[in-house]
Amino acid sequence: MSEQQQFDVIVIGAGPAGYHAAIRAAQLGMKTACIDAGLGKDGKPALGGTCLRVGCIPSKALLDSSRNFWNLQHLFGEHGITAKDPKMDVGTMVGRKDKIVKQFTGGIAMLFKANKVTPFYGFGTLHKGNVVKVEGHDGKVVELKGTNVVLAAGSDSIELPFARFDGEHIVDNVGALDFTSVPKRLGVIGAGVIGLELGSVWRRLGAEVTVLEALPDFLAAADSEAAKVALKEFRKQGLDIKLGAKVGKCELKKKGKATEVHVSYSDKDGDQAIVFDKLLVAVGRKAASKGLLAEDCEVKLDDRGRIEVDKHCHTGVDGVWAVGDCVRGAMLAHKGFEEGIMVAELIAGLPGHVNYDTIPWVIYTEPELAWVGKTERELKDEGTPYKTGSFPFAALGRAVAMGETAGFVKVIAHAETDRVLGMHLVGVGVSELVHEGVLTMEFKGSADDLARICHAHPTLSESIHDAAMAVDKRAIHKAN
Q: Which of 136, 197, 302, 362 has the largest CB neighbor count within 10 A?
């Protein structure tokens, strides 16, 4: 083992939370190292974690490619645009995705170099006294010691005991990003973000997609009205979403030269069976804490394998912090961004802070879903008095001109103070529009503030203006 190297800050993990923490720490003048074990498809080190390599960025690339193909077949005709017998070259689509991923992972390496962050490629384990041992992919071990250590190990796909990943027939999100052809029959276990987004990709390209969701409610975390509209639209697009479907068994069986996935599940009508060519298991993610902590490091895990931290992401062990998917809270890249920056600033003695009440959620399906703040259900359970206003995209000039009329915007405000408590959107472009709600809530604004801000016409953002006006029953473009 080589001589121990000293750093002010050592970050384990170069995903969204980790690389933000490392770069911000270096910007603040601290000698910083960042450890990551991720490899690209070429077998070379690739920074960026799940988000850049096999998550947010590659899935959006495929979503955009498949959306263009779908619109060419189903929407462009209304504009007078026709194309005879269009084809999708899956290899080209996946290659484009890979090129984008390589661009961004390489971009982080350049940012590390520009900010003088020292990268180490391999698996990092925290030991007592803020010592981190890094085992490289070649088996060599390097020992580092940090005044501060930031744990940003991210998360892994949850594997079901009766549906083990084989990387070909039963896959997680990684496998579903790299199908070499469009499966005729694709099964998806789990109607969450990953299942819906990747299910949508392959449905648009022609796959018969069946989504099996164990819960009786669709997208229970979202606003119930938005979820209802989204479910209707997804089914119109051909996604066969079965709710209350509890999977109990998956078997691989040969049929000639092909391998089929036989799935058994139960629903309100009893025991059911269905056959797929590919099965995507998307039942959630778990903290990637395995092998991260030596027994003597004193950092504690909760009963879900997450690292225990306080509101400032400190573990209770002197100089040890943890951020992103491996701690409590939403497993969202942008939540990790903010925690990484907060911790770096706290280490530097600055007032770092994350407002967890204004973190937006987005599902990049078609239509998109987005929300920030409380749902009506949550406010009712809390006993908080509230009022709402909504506006449909079907009444919005820009949306009608685009041929994208599904969905609506809902603004929820406190019944007495008028302060915005939540914003819920389903429709085209709402992944961008939701930030009006984030900004308003961050500055403790009211529905009346939103209603009195001039929005350009015709735009999609007018839907927020009209929804805010509807809170006090003064909308112009809909009946109150």
A: 197
**Superfamily the domain 5-157+286-354 falls into:** FAD/NAD(P)-binding domain (3.50.50.60)
Residue 375 near residue 207 (C-beta atoms within 8 A): no
Sort strands 408-414 and 386-392 into parallel, antiparallel or unpaired: antiparallel
Helix, strand, or coil (residue 442): helix
| Residue 371 pLDDT exceeds 90 | yes
The residues with which 146 forms a beta bridge, in sequence order, are 7
**Cα–Cα distance measured from residue 474 to residue 467, given in angstroms and rounded to the nearest whole number:** 9
In 3D space, the residue among 123, 118, 120, 70 whose CA is nearest the CA of residue 93 turns out to be 70
- 8 Å CB contact between 344 and 24: yes
Active site residues: 457
Q: Which residue has the tokens 């590390």?
A: 112
Other residues' Cβ atoms within 10 Å of the Cβ of residue 408:
23
Rounded-to-integer distance, Cα 432 and Cα 448, Å: 21
Choose among 264, 205, 165: nearest CA to 69. Answer: 205
The architecture that CATH gives domain 170-283 is 3-Layer(bba) Sandwich (3.50)
Q: In this structure, what token pair is assigned to residue 115?
A: 């900010």
In angstroms, the first-to-last Cα distance of the chain is 73
Q: Which amino acid is at 206?
A: G
Q: pTM for this one?
A: 0.96
Note the pLDDT tens digit of each residue in 12-23: 999 999 999 999
Phi, psi of 245 (to 5 degrees): -105, 105
Same fold, 5-157+286-354 and 360-471: no
Q: Residue 48: name the closest of 19, 27, 10 by CA.
A: 19
Neighbour-count burial of 128, counting CB atoms closer than 10 A to its CB (0-12 exposed, 13-18 middle, 19+ buried): exposed
pLDDT of 1: 54
Q: Name the CATH topology of 360-471.
A: Enolase-like; domain 1 (3.30.390)
